[in-house]
Design a protein that fits this description.
There is one protein chain. The chain has about 140 residues and is of the alpha+beta class. About 25% of the residues lie in helices and about 55% in strands. It contains one helix and eight strands, in the order αββββββββ.
Length: about 140
């Protein structure tokens, strides 16, 4: 085998190793971005009540493993998030409003759109809202 053939073969091997390393680094960065984009933060949106009123909602959410905590605010009243759970991008929690009514929430986090779709069950009345991250 000539010296040129040996050098050519070594360059091919180095090129493959370099390509493989670059591909692995890209995959790692994509995975890291997916982990970093989480539900924690401040979210705002508007829900339309059955009588046609628009009510602004603000949620401050903290995710710790599969637990979801934080608070919700509407009409100047702030209440704690209770029984919060998250699995993947799906989550649930309850709040108890100032009148003592427990309000279950079910939602889905859409990281690619940095938004949340949320269903709210207020005494059997179902409402839906989309929340955006408050930046």
């Amino acid at each position: 085998m000539s010296a040129n053939s040996i050098i050519h073969t070594k360059l091919k091997i180095m090129s493959k190793k370099l390509f493989t390393t670059a591909a692995l680094v890209c995959c790692f960065m994509i995975c890291l971005a997916a982990v970093v984009a989480d539900l924690s933060g401040k979210w705002t949106g508007v829900v339309k009540t059955p009588d046609g009123q628009d009510v602004t909602l603000t949620y401050t959410i903290k995710v710790d493993g599969d637990k979801l905590t934080g608070s919700g605010e509407s009409n100047g009243n702030t209440v704690a998030i209770d029984e919060g759970k998250i699995k993947g991008n799906d989550f649930t929690f309850k709040i108890t409003n100032t009148e003592g009514i427990v309000i279950p929430h079910t939602g889905k986090f859409y990281p690619e759109a940095d938004s949340v779709g949320m269903d709210i069950d207020y005494n059997g009345t179902k409402m839906h809202t989309t929340l955006k991250r408050d930046k």
